[in-house]
Structures are given as structure tokens and as C-alpha cells.
Amino acid sequence: MVQATGVRKAFGGQEVLRGVDLSVPRGSVTCVIGPSGSGKSTFLRCVNHLERPDGGRILVDGSPVGYEPYRRGLRELRRRDVARQRRQIGMVFQRFHLFPHLTALDNVVEGPVGAGRPRAEATEEAMALLARVGLADRRDAYPAQLSGGQQQRVAIARALAMRPKLMLFDEPTSALDPELVGEVLDVMRDLAADGMTMLVVTHELAFAREVADEIAFFHDGRVLESGPPDRLLTAPDHPRTRDFVTRVL
């Protein structure tokens, strides 16, 4: 589903990504771990072209993200075409970014209706999605009336409403109080069990051990090593990975 090759990105002369290679098979869960500043979130934003890579290539479901074939190379898509392509890639951020003036239901309905889906159909599906994340009874609540965990679950429902083929999660529990983390992770476990392809940046190593098919350890803008959870979290090859895992666990 995702094939990243040699992805590079710099901000103001500082190279944040230094040639990232990463594959995410269809129907699998890949968790990205690593210290702050290692390029994890920047890479995730490159996958759906919220950040434009300076080099390398990212394919999602076989198509270059943000680009189209042109002559013997590629050219960048127009903004509206990038937005259309991005509908297939759901993203859940650290902060919830819900519309404060809309109810939970309307937050979920807004995207599909804007994409041309009939409101009645979008509303029916949104109600089903809110039920799936355990918030059917909060459909008429505004974000200010919801806890952080509830807001994040609405954000997940909103992303799912676009019927994405890939879900990106950028540390979705980092802004939550500890007692609210579990309710968001439960929803993500359910998605993984249903076969949703997921790329998750997280510091929740216990969750990664349980759910991930593959874990990639980022350090200094590169994938230092990757592998199945049982190996990478218990007997990593690289000393830097071993040090990080020991400290976090």
C-alpha cells in the first residue's frame, strides 16, 4: 500500500529526512517509533503530501502521491487534484482539529458532503461510524462538551467517513490524559482487526507490540532498523534502538 524510497526533506537548510525507505503492505499495521526530532511526523505528512518531499518517491497503492506521470518523468498535481487524491488517505493528528461550531455528527458528515456524497447517505454512515467508536449517544454534542478522548474518537470517525484505503495516525494519544488513552487505542485495535492498512507514529510501545506487524525505528532522519515487534522490542540489532526501547519500556 505504501512504498517510500529515498525520501528526503529539509526545512531552512536543516535536513529532517535523510533518505527514508519504508514499505507498508496492504492490510498491515506499521508502527513508527523513535526519539523526538527524528523525522517521524514529517515523514507521515509527506505520505499524504501535506509536506512536499525534496527528493525520493512515495507511492500509495501504486500511484505517486502528489504527482502524475508527465513525459518521461513526473509533475506535481494541482492543489484540487492533490485534495482529491488525499481523500483516500485518512489522517488523525495529535490535536483533534474538530470544527468547534459543529456537532460531533456534523464534523463527521462535513467531509463526505463536501466531496459530493448525498447528505442523507453521509449522515447515515456518520451515525454508524460514531456508534463504531462508541459515541452514538454524543452525536449532538459540540467539541467543547467532549473529553479529549471523545474528540479524538470523533476525529477517527471523521477520517473513516471518507472511506480511505490507508489510515495515518500521528501520535494520536500524545495530547490525552493518561486515563483517556485506552479508549482511543481500543478503536485503533478494532480497525487493525478489520484489516485497515495503518501507518502509526506512536510512543505507546505496548500498543505497538500488540497490534503492529512491523515496527520501524527512526533516528536522525532515517529508518535505522525495522522488524516484527517481538524481535525489535526485545532484541534489536542496533545499540541506539536498544537504548531507546530500554528507556521507554
Automatic annotation (TrEMBL):
It is found in: Cell membrane. The keyword S-adenosyl-L-methionine does not apply. It is a peripheral membrane protein. InterPro entries: AAA+_ATPase, ABC_ATPase_HisP-typ, ABC_transporter-like_ATP-bd, ABC_transporter-like_CS, MetN_ABC_transporter-like, P-loop_NTPase. The keyword S-adenosyl-L-methionine does not apply. Residues 2-245 form the ABC transporter domain. Gene3D superfamilies: P-loop containing nucleotide triphosphate hydrolases (3.40.50.300). Keywords: ATP-binding, Cell membrane, Membrane, Nucleotide-binding, Transport. Pfam families: ABC_tran. GO terms for molecular function: ATP binding. PANTHER family: AMINO ACID IMPORT ATP-BINDING PROTEIN, L-CYSTINE IMPORT ATP-BINDING PROTEIN TCYN. This is Amino acid ABC transporter ATP-binding protein. It comes from Kitasatospora misakiensis. The lineage of its organism: Bacteria, Bacillati, Actinomycetota, Actinomycetes, Kitasatosporales.
